[in-house]
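pipeline: protein-struct stage 2 | run 1193 | Adenine phosphoribosyltransferase
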Amino acid sequence: MTIDQLRELVRTIPNYPKPGIQFRDVTTLLLHQQGLSETVERLAVSVADKPDLIAAIEARGFVVGAALAVRLGCGLLLIRKDGKLPGETIAEDYALEYGKDRLAMHIDACTIGQRVLIVDDLLATGGTALAAARLVRRVGGVITGARFVIDLPELGGGKALRADGIEVAALMEFAGA
């Protein structure tokens, strides 16, 4: 499949979660077996150095991250909304393009020096991915990069991640918010 064919599998939902937002919904891409397979394969090929862990961000990032971890032969670290993980956690606040939230991870999910690739479905402002990177770094993990199915470059997330020293790649871009 081409990138254009993959883009066609992404549904746009206008005015969600608030007026003016064009929500890029990857669930329609995930429903398509060949589209999902091609997405995971293209993301895997973009990773030059195999990480020890994939840090997958809740919730759609879990799907892509888990498949990518299996494909690359590495472990899966879950980055969740605060209060969703059992056991001892650490948390980070972050800004969304339409609000604020807080992410958490198990304090023992990553050890000092482990190489971690951040994965999510969509990159907008970069706040979520930066919070995930701060969590991993707080326990001594090393961020090797970040991968996304979709980038909304006008919102500046890629620029923000690169300014933080994180190498970024996405399969496709969409204009606007």
